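Need tokens for this chain, all 148 residues.
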Amino acid sequence: VQEGEGPGPDPDPEPGDNFVRGDANSDGAINLTDGVIPLLFLFSGGAAPACMDAADTNDTGAVEITDAIIIFSWLFTGGVAPAVPSPQSPGYYPAACGPYATKDGLGCETLAPTCGLSRPGSSRPPGFVTGPKAELFQTAGGDFPSMR
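Here are the structure tokens for all 148 residues:
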């Protein structure tokens, strides 16, 4: 298997791919589900978050129980927001999206549609899917549709 091939998310996404920390399911909003997904993944054998880097809310390079606590605290008690790129509000706007600054190997299997195109000239559309799910979304022309 050559580098970049095989199952799973990109080990480190393309430089400039945009995301928002805390949006674990990459649906364009941060809510209760984004705190529950990491807990199910860690303790109940649940599926991995759609964007592991976004689920790593404190940017430690690992998804931990602390990441869920940060989301719940931020949503319900006015606690500290997730690490940069940080959302300004639970229903964030594209301006809150930012690039991956830390090389930690977590990556994203799905990029949030809210973050739009990854960077000028990128061929990755909003909602781009990588890894084993990519084949499910590939159209006859080889394009990846938006996940909106």
